[in-house]
User: Fold this.
Amino acid sequence: MDKLPKIALPVVFAVVLAIILISKSAVTIGSGEAGVLYKTFGGGVVTDKPPLGEGFHIVAPWNKVYVYEVRQQELFEKMKVLSSNGLEIQIDASAWYQPVDSELGFLHQNLGENYLDRVIKPAIRSAARSVVGRYTPEQLYSSKRDAIQDEIFAETKKILDKQNVQLNEVLVRDVTLPNTIKEAIERKLRQEQESLEYEFRLVTAKKEAEKVTIEAQGKADANRILSASLTDKILQDKGIDATLELSKSPNSKVVIVGSGDSGLPLILGNN
Assistant:
């Protein structure tokens, strides 16, 4: 086999070198990710341009690309905090968060890849301590869970908005009280419920009694008015009208006018 010409060796060397450089310079950004470019000889982290988007990129081999996930992520936290009266409460919560894509260079420059431990966890823990400390265990157990969830979200978001991190939601999954406190609260709630039911029965009975009294009073008033209006003359006229109606009946009868009590007609049937 003929030897390669001398000029072919530099070409081969150049091609191999180019392949090596390209392999070291090629960066692929996956789905839901973005890359922060670090220029070794050009001022460090690039913050004045958008981060590298999804796909294939060629960068100088002496530069670096730091890849971040920019999709929504979830943090689970179990926190022990104190209520307003100093009792220890356990809060199980989760936070939905993601880096602000357009500010990814500043996030990398200020906090780095470990921003979850550096800022998000301390922020949500601080907010939880602050919020829970305003409420009693009874309020946390019964009526204020939605309120503390909203307040923890608001206070955490206020902190993270300054740290190039977007907080989407905070969910309080569980509030755990000491067993003795939980049992005492449940007893109190049962007693309050029984008291409300008893008061409801009293009010219902009172209203029913008032209804009966009103109906009886109405009947008494009606009878009194009727009695005052029924004179002997009116009764006699009513009796005559009734007698006339009976006389129209097909049954056999004898009507004796003026023979009854108070001068009313007397009707004698065939029986």
In short: The domain at 73-177 is CATH 3.30.479.30 (Tetrahydropterin Synthase; Chain A). The CA atoms of residues 100 and 164 lie 6 Å apart. The mean pLDDT is 79.
